[in-house]
Specification:
The structure is a homodimer. Chain A is built from 14 helices and 30 strands. By secondary structure, chain A is of the alpha/beta class. In chain A, the strands form seven sheets. Chain A has a ten-stranded mixed sheet. In chain A, helix 7 packs across helix 8. The longest helix of chain A is centred in the middle third of the chain and has 16 residues. Chain A is globular. The mean pLDDT of chain A is about 95. At the A-B interface, strand 17 of A face strand 17 of B.
């Protein structure tokens, strides 16, 4: 088993696939061709409308052993995945690969499909119980593959993940399948993250609760690529889109972290006209966005754009002219959804445009700053966002690794410990973003600059108002306060692996002991 | 030489390619895969900006024998094709296939490149002198291939026309190549017709006279697919977009034709809420659009959408709510360009979405009515739009064959004779749209319904206000008035062939005698 560039042992083969060990954030150059797609035909006048999800599944020719996918735009409010999987299970189809973008706690019923062999492989982010079950071995001997948004785009494009049938929810669609996510009672925002699915899947099913007269516009997904359209009562619970923290933190310690990030940024020479950033939807990220907006407005700085999950805090900046554009692959609140619908400077983008490294240039490769979180960071600045320190697989990667790799400065903003467990470790439980892509770790008790960034260390050395320290001292301080954390209790069985955005393998995830 | 379904002899092979004879408008079902495209990579931070067109050409690795393409959105105001071809010629590159969308009179300098062997094959519509020169044998023994908009999309998608390098003008672009055609001094409207070029070409060069800070939005072509960006002083003459008739005809005879079309349509049961149509930019088409809009407004009919080249007459209908949407692949005037930029119900579409038959459903397959012109029609209702009766190759196909094939009712609206030459013939000089796709020929002296449309004949038999007659009687009337027209003076040498939208060959074009 070779050791990869972040010191992890990667099996040469796993689940019948040869793995290529991670070599460095930009060390693997792609070659070859994109996956081929079949030339299609639709007999004019023939209806694409299927009366039920079951009829649509039958029409696609879905068979045991195939791969299906869904988008995750409705997040924890999504009812489509459960509905479709229930029908598939009842139809006796087994041994499917679930190649979704992400799963949420609402998708807990999938655990039953895993146990019954309906789903035997998952290539998807998993937030919550499905990940926990997979981490506890529920799918063994079969594996899960975790990818970032850009990495998923790459994998589908390269046919590493070939999708036989994709089922895509749309909040507005017409009878030919032209559709979008900005109109209708279940509006969720961009469908861009599903573009790679419709472009490369053999069969495309659009599921909508809002079938409108042709043509539905804006056309996010064109009917030229849609096989069937199904109308149902409701895509899900729009409230569930707001899953996760979408409120600014009220914790004084976390507000302090956000304040440190913005203060640090002021010394970096990036925070000037044309500044661009990746914003997340966590409590600290929202506070950073808010403080950043306040600072830029006060200083008359006009930023270039924000990318990533969009929120009211970002669209407020757009409305007031503090930034010129928003590039959007995921809306986290209703204000953002309405902004995408109404503001021409709010642009829908795909996962490829967002962060696929095997394109002629993606957005995350040109951003100035990324404000990211972590479940753990280690003294080599490697970052974990998928497992907790107890080894439990509970989160997806999102755009984390994509933004970290591309941003001129990447911040990990996080408290020094959670529930009295230190989050800076000698070795993170799972490496998701390599330390070479992380520049600054900001906690309420100190700020550690990656030693690779001598420029930043030099620039910040006179900022007496910022608690600049080293990652090792931060780790020690946490352990002095909370004690050394227990190592996770893991078996030797691999339940999943983390594919870096370029298709190499950066880490494996072991089954947690029962 | 087999005879195809419209009675034309098609060689089994021509210019080294096997030809498949036309079998019928919807008889050929596609199989196989779309053309493969290479997986790309762009080193973050590396500039795509090239200082000159020459530098960009060099960077693409363009070599003799390759295929290049351009879009035609600037129409007769385009300076890009001539600029790029001049540089290519000076660099000593020869034997190129020009796979453009369309050429206009402004591109007359290409004739020199043809004569010097820089261009040895053309797969493009040709309006004016380049077509005339090709028709007179200037490129022999090499050939031209003529396709409709949808047919071109099909050919590129199927890799029948593989584009090595595409040079695409954009009226606004950023340094990564994200671009559009709606902002800037050279705004021309949709870039959708070039989507198939950027999606399938090996190398993509964006040429702009308006380089803006990243990100340029709306993103019509994404930087993920762009290799190089070149800034020049001006893309062309925006006034040249208005090439061709973009004014309503003032001829009483032609106004009468337009009036007959709308009157006829009233009997067809299509002209009700939800009505959709393809509108052209010829003088009669504009009059039809105007009269149609007036009628629909007076009768409180709310149409569904208009598609095709958009004009003020169409966008006026959109503004006042007479139609709900405009689907746009080409703007013909400034009002339409501004509407595409500002009105969210005015949707940019690609050639594939417009009329590619080898997709899962295109717009032209769902339109109610198409209002089209012709250079000639024959007694089998076959239509010619590319050559004149003297055999001169002077026009492109545009979306003609795509709209005719799909529309529930296709009108050919034209005067019975031009310059005292009858335009209804026993056999058209060149078949472009097969008679099976044409329903009604409307002239100022009579209206002929295709005998296949027994339903229309029955419905219209009591309309004493319309001069319903037969195509043969119309032909006779024209010949009685003007005399029987001379047959074109043609040699046996084939200079071009017309590929039907499904990839089969519907006709060949012979060299005209000098």
């Amino acid at each position: 088993m070779p050791v990869n560039a972040v010191g992890r042992f990667i099996p040469e083969e796993l689940g019948g696939r040869k793995l290529v060990p991670f070599k460095g954030a930009f060390k693997s150059k792609p070659s070859g061709y994109k996956g081929r797609t079949k030339i299609s035909y639709h007999k004019p006048g023939k209806s694409k409308i299927k009366r039920s999800i079951e009829d649509a599944i039958k029409a696609t020719g879905l068979k045991s052993g195939m791969t299906i996918s869904f988008h995750h735009q409705l997040r924890n409010g999504d009812w489509i995945i459960n509905m479709v999987m229930d029908k598939i299970a009842k139809m006796g189809i087994r041994n499917l690969t679930l190649g979704s973008r992400a799963l949420f706690p609402v998708h807990k019923p999938l655990i039953d499909h895993i146990k019954k062999g309906v789903i035997t492989r998952i290539e998807s982010s998993m937030n919550g119980p499905v990940g926990a079950a997979v981490g506890q071995g529920a799918m063994l001997p079969n594996l899960a593959v975790l990818r970032s948004h850009g990495g998923r785009g790459r994998a589908i494009q390269a046919d590493d993940l070939h999708i036989d049938v994709t089922f895509l929810g749309a909040s507005e669609a017409d009878e030919l399948g032209n559709c979008n996510g900005v109109h209708g009672k279940s509006a969720f925002g961009p469908l861009g993250p599903a573009w790679v699915d419709y472009q490369f899947a053999d069969k495309v099913v659009i599921i909508t609760d809002n079938l409108v007269p042709y043509p539905a516009t804006p056309i996010s997904i064109p009917g030229t690529h849609v096989d069937y359209v199904v109308q149902i009562d409701a895509l899900g619970d729009p409230g569930g889109i707001l899953f996760g923290t979408t409120q600014i933190t009220r914790s004084p310690a976390r507000l302090l972290i956000a304040d440190y990030v913005v203060e640090f940024l002021r010394s970096s020479e990036l925070l000037k006209d044309g500044f661009s950033f990746q914003a997340g939807a966590g409590g600290i990220s929202l506070a950073v966005t808010k403080f950043l907006g306040d600072y830029m407005r006060d200083e008359n700085i006009t930023g270039s754009f924000a990318v990533g999950g969009s929120t009211k805090f970002v669209t407020d900046m757009l409305e007031e002219g503090t930034i010129r554009k928003v590039l959007d692959a995921q809306c986290f609140d209703t204000t953002a959804i309405n902004s995408l619908r109404d503001n021409p400077d709010h642009q829908e983008i795909s996962s490829d445009i967002f962060g696929n490294p095997h394109t002629k240039g993606c957005v995350t490769h040109v951003i100035d700053a990324a404000f990211l979180g972590a479940t753990e960071v280690d003294t080599d600045f490697n970052v974990n966002v998928v497992t907790h320190s107890d080894g439990m697989l509970l989160h997806g990667i999102g755009g984390h690794a994509d933004a970290a790799a591309g941003a001129k400065i990447t911040f990990i903003a996080m408290p020094l410990f959670r529930k009295r467990i230190p989050v800076i470790r000698d070795k993170v439980t799972t490496v998701v973003a390599p330390g070479e892509t992380i520049d600054v770790v900001v906690t309420e008790r100190g700020i550690a600059i990656n030693p690779r960034r001598k420029d930043l260390i030099k620039k910040l050395k006179d900022r007496k108002d910022l608690p600049i320290t080293t990652i090792k001292k931060l780790k020690q301080e946490a352990e002095d306060l909370c004690g050394k954390p227990e190592p996770p209790q893991l078996t030797d069985e691999i339940v999943a692996y983390v594919e870096y955005r370029d298709g190499t393998v950066i880490d494996t995830i072991k089954k947690v002991k029962a």
